[in-house]
Amino acid sequence: MRALTFHSTILNHTFDLHVYLPPNYSRLYTYHLAITQDGRDYFQLGRIGRKMETALEEGAEDTIVIGIPYPSVEQRRYWYHPDSEGSTAYIQFLVKELLPFLEDTYKTPNLAQGRTLIGDSLGASISLLAALFYPYSFSRVMMHSPFVNDTVLQAVRQTDSWHSFDIYHTIGTEETNVETTDGNIQDFLSPNRDLYQLLQKKGSRYYYHEFEGGHFWKYWEKDLPDAIRFMFEI
């Protein structure tokens, strides 16, 4: 577990990235790359480093996990929301700045199947959109309770790229009245079921699960081991 500083020209922001390196890490070997939005949450609340350790013991491929922290709730919404002007710039940052930097820093496969995007809520939404728009860069997505609206559903309808994806998708049965960061109350469950109807039709290696609970990290943290097991085919 370590920190890695990276400055984005596109976003005009310097990130202190969270980094998990597997035991006995060596630059001689190639590692799968997993990038989490809401990085501080996945590392501190989700304890993703410890869960990756367990997954490696169970047979998962060696994986480097990078956590991208957000500076504020307002900036998170500006970068992650599907309808925000900032979401396009954030996706450009992922593909054109961060990914090349990580490939220069660590030895990772130059293949979409060697990279996983991870996120919860709006972080899950921007992860899915980034993969849909750049399927040759990312083709594995792990989503916890994504925010789904017409923009997300239309993006899925307009491309066939996700047919070759590996997708883990989970939502809580109590997520019918979620207070969002802009102060509104929204139903997350129904739109996620609509997304499920699209994604389950054909092609992708896709797992959908509804857990008993709400839009909180205590449920996502419990679900994370299953998500990792699916994504790494344990």
Automatic annotation (TrEMBL):
Pfam families: Esterase. SUPFAM superfamilies: alpha/beta-Hydrolases. It comes from the Bacteria. PANTHER family: ENTEROCHELIN ESTERASE-RELATED, IRON(III) ENTEROBACTIN ESTERASE. This is Esterase family protein.
